[in-house]
Amino acid sequence: MNPRCFLLCLACMAALAGCQPQPASTASVVRIEGPTMGSTYHISYVPGSGGQPAAAQAQGAVQALLGEIDAAVSTYRDDSDLARFNAAPASVCMDMPDTALELARHALALAQQSEGAFDVTLLPVLEAWGFRHGAAARPAHETSPAPAPAELEAARDRMGMQHLRVQPGQLCKDAPIRVEFNSIAAGYAVDRVASYFAQQGVGSYLVEITGEMKAVGLKPDGAPWRIAIEAPLEGERQAQRIVQLNGLALSTSGDYRNWHEVDGQRQSHIIDPRTLAPVRHRLAAVTVAAPSALEADGLSTLFMALGPQQGFDYAQARGIAALFVSRRENGAGFATRATAAFDAAFGASPQGEKP
């Protein structure tokens, strides 16, 4: 799974097992789940007229969509389109599927809007700090030495969004960069799956993929889909805030479960592309709500790089619905701060709210 904290879905995520369509606890709600992207997906939906799509039909379509995305942009398989692009030398343009091109366009736009705080070419830097991918991945929380300055400078020569561009039907690079879309691929997948259900005439559904989610419509009893945003606690799962989703996507990013020690100090897995170093601010988690899961996914990652103040200012100025959870200076718990757009969408945080 991507390095992010989970969103807990009170409406549909409990008591699901296996990878086949499961009997719904409510007769008119269909629930399906399965593996994807090193994690799982869970979907609840109310079938449209004629009971369509049936569970088996929906699951087959969803798995086909997710398989298509995996074949296009996975960095954990050598035969994906993105793996071939990453293995190619500098100064090359390659034909790429629409999935890769759309993700690249979104990443380039977010990098430009954030003045370089969002970057999908950080693999050399992640490797230098010990956050490797695939079979060579270092276990979270393991101790390692800090990379030498020369190693980071060498990594800088093999990264940078300025070296990536999209042209009709092709992805191009003018330096030996490697691209990974782990920070936005799950959100993109949620949007694709949500679009499938909308095209099938389904007016009520909740789609969750590796923790990214989107909900539309109401459940058969007229109640909204209720989502619990998880508190950033290690070793336990506790709901911090419950929100009702209808027509919005939700994404949460955090650094409290994926970290390791470098020279005896705890280091976040989140790298600031501007410094080539793990972030050192007190922001523990940030949740973003947006009409598009792709947008929410990318922004939650960006805000973790920007930090509690710069990230909040960015979101507030642009009318983005975001909830920031920061560690207090004295280490005694957490402080939360919501943008005006978040409070407008979900109401001011009530005291003592329980899942």
Automatic annotation (TrEMBL):
Q: Which PANTHER family match?
A: FAD:PROTEIN FMN TRANSFERASE, THIAMINE BIOSYNTHESIS LIPOPROTEIN APBE
Documented EC number(s) = 2.7.1.180
- Give the protein's recorded name: FAD:protein FMN transferase
Q: What GO cellular component entries does it have?
A: plasma membrane
Cofactor annotation remark: Magnesium. Can also use manganese.
Native source species: Ottowia cancrivicina
Q: What is the membrane topology here?
A: Lipid-anchor
**Which key words tag this protein in UniProt?**
Cell inner membrane, Cell membrane, FAD, Flavoprotein, Lipoprotein, Magnesium, Membrane, Metal-binding, Signal, Transferase
